[in-house]
Write a structure and sequence with these properties.
Helix content is about 35%, strand content about 20%. The protein is of the alpha/beta class. The strands form two sheets. Strands 1, 2, 3, 4, 5, 14, 15 and 16 form an eight-stranded mixed beta sheet that branches. Strands 6-7-8-9-10-11-12-13 form an eight-stranded parallel beta sheet, sandwiched between helices.
Length: about 400
């Protein structure tokens, strides 16, 4: 049934979905949920009497705050093995690109994922997704991209589908077959690109295994020209598109995202001014994930103040993956973003809720409004700035997903 009343809410914070960074506040209120959707927001303390108890399950927020569940719009939660050895190598002085050139990085994850069967991959990925939920994530993007063969990419996407079916969280699948050029195609890039365009994308789209197609545009990975061909093919098969762009070098990937009408361009440490303007003119979401710069020890972060100053719409995500950001927690990413991106708590919460929804092209979650999914958090805060301020702490006390208390 998923009929629930949350009462005794001290403060309810919800983003104004049409105004980047604006959060509305309602004090001393109650939320009524029916069939997993928000039925009403009552600006007063509802009386919990016998008829109410008969109709609804009751959750007492004990005067704490309620927010929409976090939407993490960029993550790689399905992989076979940790890469903590690479973390140590970086801290001893090697760079991400140097480690990748020596056979580490994505190629390392690809070798291990190919050797693991679907059930085992499902079992270890499930544990990770449950961790995301504890930190308040109720919708999570999940990318393929560590298989890089038809069968191994499909294996990853099937794991994502199973996780979505079995766990009380929405997983939004993205096909990232263009994460790297696999070892066996090193001397034959064109062969792999043709496999992507002629086999993988049509198959993934036909089996509805992904909502979008992503690509890593970067030095030593994919060029703009290749990106244009691959993503155009994806669009022709009805997939949304998005790009890992301008992360390690300024490469024009964000301009391509604007040109193709992508949902988002992601990373953006080295985005150019012209590409910022191009994205704004097309309404492309700036998906910021400074956890990756932080974790690989970069000194440069995405120019969030410039983007916001010009009118850009930002999402905030973890980029959870075994190489460049091993972090489940959007609140911790908010801490990094407050310090290095100089974003306010209102902007951060907006980006991690309404912004995440925009980046995924979903309209039924990301704010507390009548008719939206009842994906809600009870957090032990009075003011939003307590979230980024509480470094590495978990202030999430309850997680409600589709009207059900799941944590
Ligand atoms: O988002 N940039 C490319 N992909 C990931 C890193 C993947 C990896 O190192 O395994 C990222 O940072
Ligand atoms: Fe990524």
């Amino acid at each position: 049934m998923n009929d629930l009343i949350i009462h005794n809410i001290g403060r309810l914070f919800t983003p104004e979905t049409d105004h980047f960074g604006k959060i509305s506040l309602i004090e001393n209120c109650s939320v009524k949920i029916r069939d997993g959707l928000i039925e009403d927001i009552l600006p007063y303390e509802i009386e919990i009497n016998a008829p109410v108890i008969e109709k609804y399950e009751i959750l007492d927020a004990k005067g704490m705050s309620v927010l929409p569940g976090f939407i993490d719009s960029h993550a790689h939660p399905v992989f076979a093995a940790l890469r903590n050895n690479e973390f140590e190598m970086r801290n001893a002085g090697k760079s991400y690109l140097e480690i990748a050139e020596a056979g580490g990085g994505i190629k390392n994850s690809v070798r291990k994922l190919r050797a693991m069967n679907e059930d085992e991959l499902f079992r270890i990925s499930k544990k990770r997704v449950l961790e995301f939920m504890k930190f308040g994530t109720t919708t999570l993007e999940a990318k393929s991209g560590y298989g890089l063969t038809v069968d191994d990419e499909i294996k990853m996407l099937k794991v994502i589908r199973r996780l979505n079916e079995e766990l009380p969280i929405d997983l939004v699948p993205t096909f990232l077959g263009a994460h790297d050029i696999p070892e066996e195609y090193k001397e034959n890039r064109e062969g792999y690109i043709s496999l992507l365009i002629n086999e993988m994308i049509p198959k993934v789209a036909a089996e509805k295994l992904a909502a979008a197609c992503d690509i890593f545009i970067e030095k030593n990975y994919y060029t703009i020209e290749e990106g244009r061909r691959i993503l155009t093919a994806a669009k022709e098969h009805g997939l949304d598109v998005k790009i890992h762009a301008d992360q390690l070098t300024s490469n024009g990937g964000s301009g391509l995202a604007a040109e193709l009408g992508a949902l988002s361009s992601d990373h953006l440490e080295y985005i150019s001014d012209a590409d910022i303007d191009a994205m704004i003119s097309k309404g492309t979401v700036f998906n910021l994930m400074p956890g990756a710069s932080f974790f690989i020890g970069m000194r440069d972060f995405p120019p969030a103040r410039k983007i916001i100053g010009r009118g850009g719409i930002c999402a905030l995500s973890t980029d959870f993956n075994p190489g460049t950001c091993y972090c489940y927690s959007l609140p911790f990413i908010m801490t990094i973003s407050a310090i290095y991106l100089h974003m306010s708590a209102q902007e951060l919460v907006w980006a991690a809720t309404a912004g995440g929804a925009r980046a995924l092209g979903i309209t039924d979650a990301g704010s507390v409004e009548k008719g939206k999914k009842a994906d809600l958090l009870v957090m032990d805060i009075k003011e939003l700035s307590e979230i980024p301020y509480s470094m590495g702490m978990n202030l999430v006390r309850k997680v409600v997903k589709n009207g059900k208390v799941v944590i």
